[in-house]
Amino acid sequence: MMGSENEAVSEMQMRQILITKAGTPDVLRVVEAPVSEPTVGRVRIKVAAAGVNFADVMGRLGLYPDAPRIPYVPGYEVAGVVDAVGEGVDAGLTGQDVIALTRFGGYSEYAWVPAIQVFPRPARFSVEQAAGFPVAYLTAYATLVALAGIKHGEHVLVHAAAGGVGLAAVDICRIFGATVYGTASPQKHDFLRERGVQYPIDYRHQDFEKEIKRLTKGKGVQIALDPIGGHSWTKSYRSLSPGGRLVMCGVFSLAPKPNRSLWAAIKLGLTIPWLRFNPISLTSDNKGVLGLNIGKLWDRQEIVRQWVDQLVAWQDNLNVHVDRVFRFEEAAEAHRYMQERRNIGKVILVP
Description:
Layout: H1 2-11, E1 13-19, E2 28-34, E3 42-52, H2 54-60, E4 77-85, E5 97-101, E6 110-114, E7 118-120, H3 127-131, H4 134-147, E8 155-158, H5 164-175, E9 179-184, H6 189-195, E10 199-202, H7 208-215, E11 221-226, H8 231-238, E12 240-248, H9 262-271, H10 279-285, E13 288-291, H11 301-313, E14 322-327, H12 331-339, E15 346-350
Parallel strand pairs: 8-9, 8-11, 9-10, 11-12, 12-13, 14-15
Antiparallel strand pairs: 1-2, 3-4, 3-6, 3-15, 4-5, 5-7
């Protein structure tokens, strides 16, 4: 009987979204693959929803150095139900509603994840909210709390404030009673004010550095979160007060178009402030520069679990805003929607 059940499992098929080659969103394809048993220390999750992140876009463009060799299944985070466990894993996890950090492989009807990267789904979150929770809120927590050491009442500049990480950062800033300056396109400003951004800044028509100096009467902010890259890092650094901390957490400017742009890469290289961020300048300016790649911390799960535990403890003060939900067949449109900066909050894929 056991043998026939294993055969049935081996014959199961699932759908996955595959990056077939580097390029525009249209290189994403829905394919079928066999469903296998989880190996030692892993669980198999029947995925109900998967979060879309900018790292997925960068991987699709062939610009993400940590990604597997193309073709591969992208996806950093999922929500679903554990439907099988491997050797060495508590069988009590079976049937549990969970969220998980997948580090690739999340755009799939089933995901195989180390048990240590699986967490109970926060009770107040819908399955779509849960799928959009791990990466955005861990990134915001790592940048603001773990790296920048945010203190009550500080002034914080959040770039791309209406994105998933941006809104997560705004939520955490609100917990600390911080004053938030958020860059976003003007049609998103009313939403940001409702979320607690005291000073939305129109990055398309305003010089955010000048606006920060004007709004703070020349004092600057204590923390700047900048996922834009290039010249924006320089301007964010100059927007800091003495004792201020710049946290670089992405390079959105590397992907301004649906396809890979050689000019964008050259421009980014030319505008990175290599000379500004050196020990002599930092010492003289009394400022700090930090960097975060949350994907590099997946193997430091003792740290990540502490962060998740704190975020879950704060869940009543966190509001994962899901902008749009796309079906697997609409994955290309989901990527296009995000890359064109149309989203407010998280973009989610459902099988």
